[in-house]
Amino acid sequence: MRCFGWMAFALAALSALAPAAAQTRDQTACLAGSDRNIVAICTRFIEETSRDIGLVTSGKVRPQNKTRALYQLHNLRGGAKQAMARRYAADGDSRKSAELHHRAIEDFDEAIRLDPSQPHALLNRGNSLAELSILDRAIQDFEHVLRVDPKNALTFNNRGGAYCGKDVSYR
Hints:
The chain is mainly α. It is 81% helix and 0% strand.
């Protein structure tokens, strides 16, 4: 009977830690960006982190320092969104190189939605738009990249090509 009590206690302790361990695995996999299922993993992690933010904000969970806990949770959630954005941008890159520009643009759109300050996705969405002769939107993307990264030589080159494609004098 003693053995059963000890085993029951150990099993209860392990089951209580399982969600935290799963969240740690999700957090590690998401932020590392190494798993092919990164979008699903990061989405699950973002949902769990958002739930934790709600618990802390509502006062149902009382950490020692509420401001610090919220700051850490928001940073984790932001990092997960950036990791997902990098995955979408990588998928867009591979589709762009396979001449699947419409699908690449969808991936870049999602990457930009998740992380609007990502110049890589903006530049490559502009390149795909230029390939499809949607030059006004391509120029807008190139202008946005130059606001974020004003010394990006490739963006200057691509913007110039888009203006040439429009047959408009450079401003």
